Amino acid sequence: MTPFPSSSSSAPLGPNAVIGIVGGGQLGRMSAMAAAKLGFRTHILTKDPNSPAAQVSHGVTLGAYDDLKALDAFARGVDVVTFEFENISADAMDCLSQYCPVRPSGHILRISQDRLAEKTFFTENGIPLAPWHAVTDRASLHAAAEALGLPFILKTTRNGYDGKGQSRIHHPADLETAFNTLAPHPLVAEGMVDFACELSVMVVRGIDGTVRCFDPGMNRHRDGILDLTLAPAPVEPAISAQAQALAVSIAEKLDLVGILGVEMFLDHTGALLVNEIAPRPHNSGHWTMDACPVDQFDMHIRAVTGMP
Description:
It catalyses: 5-amino-1-(5-phospho-beta-D-ribosyl)imidazole + hydrogencarbonate + ATP = 5-carboxyamino-1-(5-phospho-D-ribosyl)imidazole + ADP + phosphate + 2 H(+). Residues 119-305 form the ATP-grasp domain. This protein is α+β, with helices and mostly antiparallel strands. The protein has ten helices and 14 strands. The two termini are 22 Å apart. The relative contact order is 0.14.
C-alpha cells in the first residue's frame, strides 16, 4: 500500500495508488473507470462478486459494509477511501479512517443520510430551505400540521429516495395513517413548495480547498424518479450563479473533499431553496460525461486523490 501522510495532507497520491470504493454499483463502476484513466487502481468493497464495479476493478473485498473483518481487509489494501452511495454505515467510514483518508468524510455522510441532521445543518448555517419540523410523536405531528398548514409532506429521515419513504398530507384524516405507515421514527414534516423547477449543481472541492462547479442542471421527474436533466439549466444567469454560490457555500461549510450533488427548488418568486445533498457522483450529473472534457467522475477522483 502506498504510504499516505495523513487525512489532512494535501500531498497528491502517486501513480498506481489504490482508491478504495465502498459499493459495487454503476456509480462505483464509472468512478473506477475514471480512476483507471488517471493512472490509479481501484479496490471495491461489495457483497456481490459480479457487481458492475467489481467487473472493472483491480481488487475486490467481499463483505457487508459493517463487517469489521471485511473492513479491515479492505482498508489494508487501499490508500484512500470513497463511496458510491449513502446507504452505508458512517461508523464503518470512521473505522476505515483509522487506516487511511476517507473522502468525503464520515461526518458528511452522517449529515447526508439523515434528513433531520441535514435540515438542521442547513438551518444552523443559514442555507435557505423549505419550512420543516421534526416529528417524534403524535403531538409533534399535529403541531407540525398546525404550523405548516395543509397540504404538507411527511417523510422518513433515512433511506428515502426516488419518491419512496414519504406521504403527502392533504386532510387531517391522513395524519394517523401516514404516521403509522412511515417508519422508522422520527419523521420530518416539510412545507410544500410552489416551485417553478428543480435545479441541481455538482460541486467539487479539493484537499487544498479549491472549489469548482459544473453548470446547474434542470431536473424533470417521472413517478418520483429523475427522468431528464437539461444542462445548462434554462434559467437567468443570475439564478445560475446563485445556485452555484449556494453549492460552494455548502461544500465549504462541510469541509468537503470530493464531489457533492446539491438539489434545490426555484420557486415562482425567484428564490432558491435547498432540498438535499448527496456526497458522491449523482444521476443528475451524468450529462457531464458527454458534454464536458472532464466529467463528474474525473473530478471526484481528482479531488479525493489530491490532483488539481
